Amino acid sequence: MEEDKRLSYFCLGLGIGVAVGILFAPKSGEETRALLRDKADESKDYLIRKSSELKETSAEILDRSKLALQKQKEQLAAAVDAGRQAYKETLTAKAGEAAG
User: Fold this and answer.
1) Residue 100: per-residue pLDDT
2) Could you state, in order of their start, the residue ranges of all structural domains in the chain?
3) What are 39-48's contacts with CB under 8 Å, separation 24+?
4) CA distance linking residue 90 with residue 83, whole number of Å
């Protein structure tokens, strides 16, 4: 969430900066367009970098989730096996008592 706010503030600041720059530009139209193009490229690079970081973070979270799920499966399987073993032992004990 915090990252979304920063990105929103960045885009808002960029838009305000562009608007103010156009209104008060002491440069010629061609120079202003070049400046705007440069700023747009910087923004594009920033967004690409942030999306790449987000993708990496998502992949890490997904991997950790998979590991946690696998661990839960193993624990559940062990619990089921222990329950089966206890059930078999109980049946064997009762069969021994009934025979004896």
Assistant:
1) 62
2) 2-99
3) 39/14, 43/10, 43/11, 43/14, 46/10, 47/7
4) 10
